[in-house]
């Protein structure tokens, strides 16, 4: 399973990219707003850091507006993926853009039916939101599992991005459930790196070394 970083913060993106563990980035209007920067400026900077799929989301709500915005987003860089919300208007936009060769990521997916519809419209990626489903006391991972099973049975090539990831266990479970990618916030990437036994082991190595060689 591959990892995308779910942020518009270029310092975090640079740091994760240097570790060689991310192969793309996802943004959304909330994440861009959090940085308080111009959309085009921040997206261009991200494309200069990571050489992989970068999702930029449309904000229009009608198909025509989404298509216009989507074409502009796609023109920013060859790696751009146009993120489109899972609505009837969104599906119309995915159909047009995918016919033009523009790659799309259908976001705000909360059911296997929505994922199937997005795939049929031509979506390159679908993003089921785990955490937000868990938040309403339902099982977000079950949706990922079902989508992966259905896509597998029917040979559907649309890639599954496990999104709205809230903790490291989500990542492991998403991998087991068959997600192709997990898009993860920087904080969770850092949590995935850490293990108390790694820290303890390092302390022991240092202490043993110093005991013998630094007398
Ligand atoms: C996915 O592409 C979204 O940007 C993101 O995962 C949403 O996560 P949240 O529910 O933590 O806002």
Automatic annotation (TrEMBL):
The keyword tRNA-binding does not apply. Its EC number is 2.2.1.2. It is found in: Cytoplasm. It catalyses: D-sedoheptulose 7-phosphate + D-glyceraldehyde 3-phosphate = D-erythrose 4-phosphate + beta-D-fructose 6-phosphate. GO terms for molecular function: aldehyde-lyase activity; transaldolase activity. SUPFAM superfamilies: Aldolase. The active site is at 83 (schiff-base intermediate with substrate). GO terms for biological process: carbohydrate metabolic process; pentose-phosphate shunt. Pfam families: TAL_FSA. Pathway: Carbohydrate degradation; pentose phosphate pathway; D-glyceraldehyde 3-phosphate and beta-D-fructose 6-phosphate from D-ribose 5-phosphate and D-xylulose 5-phosphate (non-oxidative stage): step 2/3. Transmembrane segments: none annotated. Keywords: Cytoplasm, Pentose shunt, Schiff base, Transferase. The keyword Amino-acid biosynthesis does not apply. InterPro entries: Aldolase_TIM, TAL/FSA, Transaldolase_3B, Transaldolase_3B/F6P_aldolase, Transaldolase_AS, TSA/FSA_arc/bac. One of its GO terms (cellular component) is cytoplasm. CDD domains: Transaldolase_FSA (cd00956). Belongs to the transaldolase family. Type 3B subfamily. Transaldolase is important for the balance of metabolites in the pentose-phosphate pathway. This is Probable transaldolase.
């Amino acid at each position: 399973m591959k990892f995308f970083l779910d942020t518009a913060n270029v310092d975090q993106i640079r740091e994760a990219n240097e570790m060689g563990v991310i192969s793309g980035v996802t943004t959304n209007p909330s994440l861009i707003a959090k940085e308080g920067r111009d959309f085009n400026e921040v997206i261009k900077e991200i494309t200069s850091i990571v050489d992989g799929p970068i999702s930029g989301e449309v904000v229009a709500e009608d198909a025509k507006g989404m298509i216009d915005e989507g074409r502009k987003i796609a023109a920013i860089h060859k790696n751009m993926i146009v993120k489109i919300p899972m609505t009837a208007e969104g599906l119309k936009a995915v159909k047009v853009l995918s016919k033009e060769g523009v790659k799309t990521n259908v976001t705000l997916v909360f059911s296997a039916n929505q994922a199937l519809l997005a795939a049929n419209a031509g979506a390159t990626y679908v993003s089921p939101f785990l955490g937000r489903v868990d938040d309403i006391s339902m099982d977000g991972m079950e949706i990922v599992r079902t989508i992966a099973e259905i896509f597998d049975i029917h040979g559907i090539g649309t890639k599954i991005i496990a999104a709205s990831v809230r903790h490291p266990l989500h990542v492991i479970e998403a991998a087991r459930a068959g997600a192709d990618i997990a898009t993860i916030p920087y904080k969770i990437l850092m949590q995935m790196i850490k293990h108390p036994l790694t820290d303890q082991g390092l302390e022991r190595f240092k202490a043993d070394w110093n005991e013998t060689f630094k007398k």
